[in-house]
Write a structure and sequence with these properties.
- The complex is a heterotrimer of chains A (204), B (93) and C (305).
- Chain A has 204 residues and is α+β, with helices and mostly antiparallel strands.
- Chain A is built from seven helices and eight strands, in the order E-E-H-E-H-E-H-E-E-E-E-H-H-H-H.
- Chain A has helices at 16-35, 77-83, 107-112, 143-149, 152-164, 175-186, 192-202, and strands at residues 2-5, 8-11, 40-43, 84-88, 118-123, 126-128, 137-138, 141-142.
- In chain A, strand 7 and strand 8 (141-142) form a beta hairpin.
- Chain B has 93 residues and is of the alpha+beta class.
- Chain B contains three helices and six strands; from the N terminus they run E-E-E-E-H-E-H-H-E.
- In chain B, strands 5-1-6 form a three-stranded antiparallel sheet.
- In chain B, helix 2 (50-58) crosses helix 3 (63-82).
- The longest helix of chain B is centred in the last third of the chain and has 20 residues, at 63-82.
- Chain B is globular and about 40 Å long.
- Chain C is an alpha+beta fold and 305 residues long.
- Chain C has helices at residues 12-20, 40-49, 100-115, 144-152, 185-191, 218-222, 251-260, 265-268, 270-281, 293-303, and strands at 24-28, 31-37, 64-69, 81-86, 95-96, 119-129, 132-137, 157-160, 163-167, 173-174, 180-183, 203-206, 209-214, 230-238, 245-248, 284-290.
- In chain C, strands 6, 7, 8, 9, 10, 14, 15 and 16 form an eight-stranded mixed sheet that branches. A five-stranded mixed sheet of chain C has the order 1-2-3-4-5. A three-stranded antiparallel sheet of chain C has the order 11-13-12.
- In chain C, helix 1 packs across helix 2, helix 4 (144-152) runs parallel beside helix 5 and helix 7 (251-260) packs across helix 9 (270-281).
- Classes of the chains: A alpha+beta (204), B alpha+beta (93), C alpha+beta (305).
- The interface between B and C is medium-sized, with 13 and 15 residues.
Chain lengths: 204, 93, 305
């Protein structure tokens, strides 16, 4: 400690208190140096400035669904009007004539076996295999008729069924999804025109 | 090496440890209480030579103690530099 | 003293209509929420769980306008989803419609955590008995909410099961007294308690499993405006078949643990640092490991006796 006295600087003796404190510090330094005590115990892991951490509040609030919004996909009812052919009794594979797997069995057995009806469509030059195992009817009316003559909901829901049944199209809804939409409208839980317009918006 | 302490550090002492809050970075650190002695010694304005700092804390020590303390104090200086609680300065000749 | 109107003064249809139309305005601790939703599950859960909360009007100053709504597209109909909105902003991804009430609860927590920076906010339960408040900071899955529910059912006043609100000016704890969120096995644990419990609907398949909300006691809700000084910080950890073990926590370690459990310490800067320093100075800090309900309740009774 320096103190100015009579124009000359005089070094003052450190007080007993300061000496004791310095000794204590030195002892602490020596002790911890000897045992290799860590200097840094912990540092905060939270980001600095401007971020409120939400950990713990949100229980992983992410959607379990594949989609968080409706996607564009599938072909429009206008397309299917000109490409939907109808249902056939035999199993079709893509691009081929119907394979006649009944021939290996007797005709009697073949007639007793339940017949799977798959509707098929033509895209370009190929016949597309559909996995929709049902009559191509909805509410007693054939798909073809609905595509030509139905209201917006009829046309678009048929388009949705066809889109959903052709895997190669990558339609965002499954056949079960489309069936659910249809059932909801039929039950009056969803408005017919509104759903028709939504589907129209999705179909290319 | 010439070093200074950063401005406006906030310090809370707890016996054997000290909590240091740096408002410049927003970070908070839990450090050994000896670090507080280093921080108390260092100025914020005029750079201090690290050798001068070491000499202050090593005065009246025996020679073998000095070697151990030198490493220990250097370790503290390195840690504080890494945490950006102190800065180095280039001193012009 | 003016008599407060509570939500349970409304009939079911009135609650549903208010939620569906202009919104239901309720006081939640120091905040006022306006809640809107046309979902029946929101109406039924709000009626069941928030019955004791003070009902306000649109003439009162509203802090948060929140709503739970179905999206506009086909997700309204198939695999139906819902969104949470605060004003017109949706901060989260949609959730299945079955999770509407949990989403509302999480959303209300979000509103407070994002905006209430006149408090130091800690991820912790807070309860009070005999004028002494205990803060229970803990990460999710540590058994904090189950312990909070057990204490709340055994005479403790619930301030919050999720968030401690510490006033930056005077270090007082403010209460919210909101429903306690319980998960998975803890729902059964609390159901089996020998006292009346009212739960909201049980919701499966959330990201944290099955969730249900326990109605806060009428006593806790009625005392919600009463602030209290923190007395102790207990870091709890449930560990199966563990004999109860209480250890004093080093104050510096408690300091660092508290800031790790804070939602907004990094925003508050020096004010946050000073608030935590004062909190640690004024409380005793312990770590508690337990498995037995009776033992842990006895510990807390002795702590505040």
């Amino acid at each position: 400690m320096l103190e100015q006295k009579n124009d000359s600087l005089v070094q003052k003796e450190p007080s007993q208190g300061v000496k004791a404190s310095t000794n204590k510090t030195r002892r602490s330094f020596l002790k911890k140096a000897a045992i290799g005590a860590p200097v840094v115990i912990a540092s905060s892991t939270k980001p600095a400035w401007g971020v409120a951490c939400m950990s713990g509040i949100m229980s992983g609030n992410v959607s379990n669904h594949e989609h968080t919004c409706d996607l564009q996909g599938g072909l429009s009812h206008d397309h299917w009007k000109n490409h939907f052919i109808g249902s056939k009794d035999n199993h079709w594979t893509s691009g081929q004539q119907p394979s006649n797997w009944w021939t290996k069995e007797s005709e009697i057995l073949a007639n007793l076996r339940p017949k799977f009806k798959h509707f098929y469509v033509k895209t370009g030059q190929n016949y597309e295999f559909s996995n929709f195992k049902n009559n191509s009817k909805l509410g007693g009316k054939r798909f073809g008729w609905l595509l030509q003559n139905g209201d917006i909901f009829d046309r678009e829901i048929v388009g949705a069924f066809i889109n959903a049944s052709i895997p190669s199209l990558g339609y965002p809804y499954s056949i079960a999804d489309v069936q659910e939409i249809y059932d909801l409208v039929m039950l009056g839980d969803a408005e017919r025109n509104e759903v028709g317009e939504m589907l129209e918006g999705i179909h290319a | 090496m010439h070093i200074t302490k950063v401005n406006n550090l906030r310090i809370k002492n707890f016996n054997d440890q000290v909590i240091v809050f740096d408002p410049n970075t927003g970070q908070t650190h839990c450090l050994d209480s000896n670090v507080n002695e280093i921080l108390n010694y260092l100025p914020t304005d005029k750079p201090c030579q690290s050798s001068q700092l070491k000499q202050f804390f090593m005065q009246d020590c025996l020679n073998d103690e000095k070697a151990m303390l030198n490493d220990y104090i250097q370790d503290m200086i390195d840690s504080l530099l890494k945490l950006k609680l102190i800065h180095t300065h280039c001193k012009n000749a | 003293m003016p008599i407060k109107t509570t939500l349970n003064s409304l009939c079911t249809n009135e609650i549903y209509q208010q939620l569906k139309n202009d919104g239901l305005v309720i006081a939640v601790g120091p905040f006022v929420f306006c809640i809107k939703s046309s979902l029946p599950s929101i109406a039924s859960n709000v009626e069941k769980i928030y019955g004791d909360f003070q009902l306000l009007s649109h003439d009162d100053l509203i802090d948060f306008y929140v709503s739970i709504k179905k999206p506009k597209g086909l997700r309204r109909f198939i695999k139906p989803q819902i969104n949470f909105y605060c004003d017109d902003y949706s901060p989260f991804l949609p959730l299945p419609a079955s999770q509407a009430f949990p989403l509302l609860e999480w959303g209300m927590n979000w509103c407070i955590a994002q905006h209430a920076h006149h408090y130091l906010l800690l991820h912790s339960a807070v309860l009070e008995k005999n004028g002494k408040s205990v803060i229970l900071p803990a990460q999710s899955g540590s058994g904090k909410s189950t312990l909070c529910a057990l204490l709340a059912l055994n005479g403790w006043r619930l301030l919050s099961d999720e968030m401690a609100l510490i006033d930056l000016q005077n270090c007082q704890l403010h209460a919210l007294a909101r429903p306690i969120s319980l998960k998975n096995e803890s729902i059964d644990v609390i159901h089996k308690q020998a006292c009346e419990t009212i739960f909201g609907e049980v919701v499966d398949d959330t990201n944290k499993g099955t969730i249900s909300h326990l109605k806060p006691s009428t006593f806790s809700v009625q005392q919600v405006e009463k602030t209290t000084a923190p007395f102790a910080i207990i870091f709890p950890k449930y560990q199966a078949e563990q004999v109860i073990c209480i250890e004093s926590t080093d104050k510096a370690a408690a300091f660092m643990n508290i800031i790790e459990n804070s939602f907004n310490y990094s925003i508050l800067g020096e004010a946050g640092f000073q608030a935590v320093a004062e909190l640690i100075d004024n409380t005793q800090c312990h770590t508690l490991t337990y498995s037995n309900t009776a033992e842990v309740l006895a510990f807390f009774e002795e702590l505040v006796s």
